[in-house]
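Batch manifest, entry 17 of 40.
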Amino acid sequence: MRLPIVLALAAALALPASAIARGVPDGFADLAQNLLPAVVNISSTQNVQTASSDKGPEMPVFPPGSPFEQFFKDFMNRHGHGGDNGDNGENDQGDEGDNEQAPADPHQGHPHRMQSLGSGFIVDPSGIIVTNNHVIEGADEISVTLQDNTTLKATLIGRDDHFDIAVLQVHADHPLPAVHFGDSDVSRVGDWVLAIGNPFGLGGTVTAGIISARGRDIQEGPYDDFIQTDAAINRGNSGGPLFNMDGQVIGINTAIYSPSGGSIGIGFSIPSDEASNVVAQLRKFGRPRRGWLGVRIQQVTPDIAESLGLHEPAGGAQGALVAGVNHDGPADRAHIQNGDIILSFNGKPLRALNRLPLLVAETPIDAHVPVDIWRAGKRQTVEVVVAEMPDDIKPAEPAKPRLPPANPSVELSGLGMKLSPLTDAARQKYKIDAQQKGIVITDVAPDGTAADHGLKAGDVVVEVSQAPVATPADMQKRIDEARTNSRKSVLLLVQGQDGLRWVPLPVPKKS
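Output type: structure tokens
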């Protein structure tokens, strides 16, 4: 009877049926019953040395949340030994017990076998298991416990620390129950999801919720694009799957936001569209093979867009501003330049800055990809041949303008700063590299426009409006041209102590 009610309500409000919230599912029992056998507990051990102590007996270390943790903490406090487990991370550690003899030197400490507990899921009946890299990182031994309590030794096939994904292999005498990746891109905010984990070896744990948000950047790495869910995810659930209502894996549960360490309804999962690509690479090559463009990028602000004549639709500026190009990298060979705005990559628009690294990373090596850029006031398309990301990437190089003549320091009206060519004295005073080109800021008024935009003495202006400058007169000319063209700001490429950055500077009124 629910569907007719939904349709009638939609008609009454002149809305499509999809815009009306559907009822809560009758239950998740059948779905959970089918999926639980493919979710496993993962236990990894690592031999570590702990410092010796003369303060009495040490408290055993238990996984956070273990029922023994608080018991032993209370016991030690009552007997005056104090002690605190102190582990509040996702990478839950516990003490496997000490069966080895202590070293002869008492100052060396005692060997311990530290345990990391997490979850994972089987993606191939032959015993291929996916989990988080932080669950098994640094492990000497890895064990996998199935739902029927069978424990199997696992070997590491490959791991990717940037995406926090690892692939394991176990060998059983029969095919294992497996689940499959779904399409996370079609999942929408508000869709129902199930999170299943196997924390602390207690057995499969099922929680339900909805997708709370998409594309979350939690500053964990260059490829952050998490699904946020309110399905309860607790410590020990790392590496477990996030399912849609079709029983497909649309995410790998990886992190939580919690002041207390327990679930408060803010959990994050790696989308399956990214994870499945990494898993395939690890299974095939034993390591990730990521695409590489060879650029350093910066957010396009409305001021930057306006200064370059880029008029974006409602919703704010989009794209990625190129702030550096690696010599002889894919972008350099495609003649992408400093100051270009990358609008789309392989036909996919860049609505967020972190979208470009993700799109490039998942592109096959040697693929020929069209890249739309904004340059010199118009849209252009170049073709890039994506390369494999090298292990050791040199910093992206700025454009190299011509050498400056020796002119005196000049104050530009209305900007609140003084500039000078890069003389030997200026290089020595501000510790500027001999190869650096541009004009140096020698003084900044504390209440002026330059100071408001983060410029300071010692910064070097390399370009103005995407053209090299060698003298203060060059910069004044670019400002006058911007004013003639009714631009509200000019775009400066600035070399500072933290590297290159683009700074939009308002055009001062003509005095």
